[in-house]
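Support request, please re-run this one:
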Amino acid sequence: MSNEDILKRLSRRKFLRNSVIAAAGSVLIPTAFASCKKNHHDDPTNYDGQGFNEGVASFDPETNKVILWTRYTPANQETGQPEILLDVATDKDFKSVNVSQAVKVDSNSDNTVYVDVSNLTSNTKYYYRFRSKVTGAVSVTGETKTLPAAGQTSEIKMAVISCANFQAGLFNVYGAVAESDADFVVHLGDYIYEYQPGGYGTNSSTATLNREHKPAGEIIKLDDYRQRYRQYRSDEQLQKAHQLKPFICVWDDHEVANDAYKDGAENHQPNEGDYNTRKMSAIQVWHEYLPARVTDNAKIYRNFEIAGLVNLIMLDTRIIGRDKQLKYADYLGAGGLNTNAFLAAWQNPQRSILGQEQKSWLSNKLSTSTTKWQILGNQVLMAKMYMPAELLLTVAQISDGSTDPALIAQFNKQITELVVIKTKLLQNDPTLTAAEKARVNTVLPYNLDAWDGYPAEREAVLAAANGKKLISIAGDTHNAWHSDLTDVSGRRAGAEFATSSVSSPGFEAIFGANPATVIGFEQAIALLINDLHYLDASRRGYVMASFTASDAKSEWRYVGSLTTKNTATVTGKTATEV
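Re-run finished. Output below.
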């Protein structure tokens, strides 16, 4: 079966969608279901095993609708199709109810329930809950909020998060986001990780915290992915974030496999079966647990016009159209890097990270939007991360796991020398030689898995956004970044606010957690990379991005630990765009 056939088959896989139209006024909840227990012999104490164990969640808010989600585990004594009721109200006591209606559990989608509720009022908080008609089990009460229409608010606040590895530590960042004043959450992917217990993310606290991945082994098949999502959704702080905030989500690579692209992935091997079958299973389960309002399940790119201020454009830079990533290793020989061959491949205008259909869609959205801010929801960094070529090759060896003391010493020597040269260059020091200038001006992209690996297409997007106020929000790297977006001519086209991770390790896993070492690395990299203003290489957290008619602001917020439950945050950096 061809790749196109696989995606078409996936697109035809229709999950059971419940569509509910909210009443304009209050409706009456039937007396028999008004309390947690029913008034006849079907007392919930007569049942066992049932419940809404994965909590509740809301997704893709619009001015007049929102998707509400839960998963129901039937009681051991329960037979047949579970009967579930949904209540939606404007008060937490459910005295002013807009919806009280039966909805269906989809047994073919892991007993998940999601309901697209429409006819809601803009800029309004709603409360919701799910109830079992048979057992009387009741979910926690969820809170969600519709988006404001133009003129209804002067500020939009979104919490930007990515990269939550269950094995790496507690999800304190999710707890902090739940307690924040964000209007909604933008999740940029790596919601789960596919690795086996003991694999990536495992550290000295994993076993103590009981955070080993389930099921055993790397997840490959449909039920594997479902078990992994259920494990992540068992986390108290992730449940709280979903309970209190609406989410807008896209996937990155680990929802399928590391360094995925349209035809394969670094972490998919021939003995693991057909890649497209694995991808299809992973995408199916993503939609079961993170529903998005799309007409084609393979195409999750979509946009949200918010309050006349923000056009939030959520992209798929990972699966739908990405060509395979380039690797420096493929261009290294006895004489070093085959520069001509690498540059020819890297600058190939046909290489795509979006695919032609999504690229055309994006260009149209950028050109026709009249909102103040155009926000690109990127999985991967869009800003240029071009570092001195000699340093890049050393960093690559260290990143591959080398702990050779001679290599570390070489890195320290190189970075010290390069910082001195770059400082003199910025001061127009006349004593600098041509060879010294070449050391800092001969640069290569650090991460070919990001937009840096697809420079021609980045140029096309920046050109399409010319004249617009452009902000990229990004995740993936596990580190925090603030950068300029510049085109090949050096024109500043916008800015990037890139978030740290929820729990996945950053550069500190490579260079160690010694504060002096980390700070020195951060300062040196920020100096050596022209478009970079700020890097935090060791802390876990999220970005609080806020937008008004006059400015866009990013606050990089960090939690203090992943080993003890504590949702307190500190703000490491604030940046403002006007």
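The CA atoms of residues 279 and 434 lie 50 Å apart. The first strand starts at residue 18 and ends at 21.
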